[in-house]
Amino acid sequence: METMSTEQGWVISDAAAGWIAQHRDQGHHPRHNPDSENPERWDCDCGGVWRILTPRQITQKFAHLEQS
User: Whole-model pTM above 0.90?
Assistant: First the structure.
């Protein structure tokens, strides 16, 4: 089971914390930027985005694999 850590009052997954740490180590400035569809979203000044895909987004992402 994945553990959670907190940053500035937000609960974030280990995977997100790793992404954030990696970007900070590279001198970037990731920031928490939730939206209505992705409350776990983080953006970085380098253009990178961390987010958890919603079920609808997962369906769209893998629609090309659906067999007819």
Answer: no
